[in-house]
Amino acid sequence: MKIRALLLSFLIALGANAAENEIIVGATPVPHAEILNFIKPTLEKQGYKLVVKEFNDYVQPNLATDSKELDANFFQHIPYLDEFNNVRKTKLVNAGAVHIEPMAVYSKKYKNIKDVKAGATVAVPNDPTNESRALDIIANAGLVSFKNVPLKTPVDIVKNPLKLKFKELKAAQVPRALDEVDLAIINSNYALGANLNPSKDSIFIESKNSPYVNIVVVKQGNENSAKTKALVKALQSDEVRKFIDEKYKGSVIHINALK
Fold first, then answer.
1. pLDDT attached to residue 10
2. Which residues contact 53 (CB under 8 A, 6 or more apart)?
3. Where are the alpha helices (DSSP H) in 89-225?
4. Do 55 and 95 fall within a single domain?
5. Contacts of 20 (CB under 8 A, 6+ apart)
6. How many CB atoms are closer than 10 A to CB 46?
7. Residue 205: enclosing H or E segment and its boundaries?
8. Would you state the pLDDT for residue 257?
9. Which of 11, 137, 198, 209 is the most exposed place for a label (fewest CB within 10 A)?
10. DSSP type of residue 40
11. pLDDT at position 258, please?
12. Which residue has the higher pLDDT, 200 or 73?
């Protein structure tokens, strides 16, 4: 009985140690999971095993982080996080900024945003922050104007001289709608997944001074843990900046390149 008890204690201690040295992070595939996979060797040298779990939506990784199934997630910007916490009553916090992905307008029918004709259909993400961001872009292109509200939707249109029609879809579905609509305003992670480079393939792109910086998110109270600090430090390194510059050719911009 004593041997069994000692063995059980040893296995429990071993499991606890493994969990302490394992960092489980949820991420959308491109570019977030790719960037995380790049830093695996860096974290391994520090004694951490990085486990990357891929998600194809923006809801589940936040819920999994809030329930502590994940140590962190990496896919979103601050406006989205704030809106999610407000609606879902989650307690998630920003642990550190990493990069910005410029959102852009794509089209298979037009080569210039100024050529868009009356009655054109525009596909936009349907979550509140990304929809408002997309509508800001189309407004900056001079096609429509909106009321001055924090989160815009098509009902807030003030002027729409071309009578544009807006099709609201889940963010992951917007690239797949490109063949069916005149314009599609796509988040860069999903654009890259569809082999679209916002710097080269779009007909209009948002400013590089956009406030929508992508961040590492953790459960409130974990932002200063050793695991979180190691993860954020690795992602904010110059090695990651160089990796992003070389791999994404300006479609993803590391925070160190913005200084």
1. 46
2. 24, 25, 26, 27, 61, 64, 70
3. 128-140, 188-193, 198-201
4. yes
5. 227
6. 12
7. strand 204-205
8. 86
9. 209
10. H
11. 76
12. 73
Same domain, 161 and 242: no
- Does the structure show a pLDDT above 90 at 227? yes
Q: What is the CATH number of the domain that holds 154?
A: 3.40.190.10
With a cut of 70, say whether residue 9 has pLDDT above it: no
Query: Cβ distance 112 to 163 under 8 Å?
Result: no
Answer yes or no: is 121 within a domain: yes
Q: For the whole prediction, is pTM greater than 0.90?
A: no
CB 143 within 8 A of CB 164: yes
Q: Are residues 63 and 129 in the same domain?
A: no
24 touches 53 (CB < 8 A): yes
Amino acid present at 119: G
Write the single-letter amino acid at 190. Answer: Y
Determine, yes or no, domain membership for 15.
Answer: no
Bridge partners (DSSP) listed for residue 94: 217
* SS3 of the chain: helix, strand, coil, percent, to 5: 45, 25, 35
